[in-house]
Amino acid sequence: MTDHQLLELHGVSRDFGSFKAVDGVTLTVRTGARQAVIGPNGAGKSTLFGLLSGTLATTAGSIRLDGRDITRLPVHRRVGLGIATTFQHSSLFLRETALENVLLAALRRSGAGLGGLRPVRAHRTTVARAHALLDRVGLPSRHDTPAAELSHGERRQLEVAVALATEPRLLLLDEPAAGMSPAETARLTELIAALPGDVTVLLIEHDLDMVFELADTVTVMHLGKHLTTGTPDEVRASAKVQAAYLGSVEVTS
């Protein structure tokens, strides 16, 4: 296991007027980690992911990926550097098949426009990889099914395949189990656990059973601040984490 830090945040903040949604967060994510970000509602988790993916701009602080400052880079530049994100609300092309959604993601990774779908489909290697990704995420019989016809759980599985098609070094998962049944959550947990070791995973998740089964590192946020980071056992045993979930903790910078 390497101690190399793939992602480094230093004093990262995001203000909305006088409201500090993310307040001076300093955090590292080790290469190959399966790291979760948890915290009560309003802790700033989704805002933090917006800052990492590039959909939101930072008010202060810096974000570095493998030593490179990406704080001001737009989304497409971050994708090109290996950051892929699945959001709580689906961003799939519902009229397109599962296979076409994965191929379109491959196009975005290469910088081609959507009109390049037909030329890409002519490349057997690209198509074969898309089929393999769909098989890997548990959709072996759904390649030619429009995304609109997939179940909620299957759409989340497809979103992971779409993200993997961009060849990510860092995979950001925003509440991947939201709305899933226990069986669907179990399948998704197995899928994430089986991802290649060269894919670093950082996820937000409210399902703490999933978090403690999957994550090797857990970060807790509260009121926009970084409360603590540790192993699942350390976080479970933390009195200040328990107090945060009960609404009786103060967080200092």
Give structural notes.
With 253 residues, the chain is an alpha/beta fold. It has 2 domains: 1-82 and 168-253, P-loop containing nucleotide triphosphate hydrolases (Rossmann fold); 97-164, no CATH class. It has helices at 45-53, 75-80, 98-110, 117-121, 124-136, 152-164, 182-193, 208-214, 232-237, 239-246; strands spanning 5-16, 19-30, 34-38, 60-65, 68-69, 83-86, 170-174, 200-204, 217-222, 225-230. The strands form 2 sheets. It has a 6-stranded mixed sheet, with helices on both faces. Strands 2-1-4-5 form a 4-stranded antiparallel sheet, with helices on one face. Strand 7 (170-174), helix 7 (182-193) and strand 8 form a beta-alpha-beta unit. Helix 3 packs parallel to helix 6 (152-164) and helix 5 (124-136) packs across helix 6 (152-164). The two termini are 30 Å apart. The mean pLDDT is 89.
Which sheet architecture does the biggest sheet show? 6 strands, mixed
Percentage of residues in strands: 15-25%
Low-confidence stretches: none
* C-alpha termini separation: 30 Å
Task: Tell me the series of helices and strands, N- to C-terminal.
Answer: EEEHEEHEHHHHEHEHEEHH
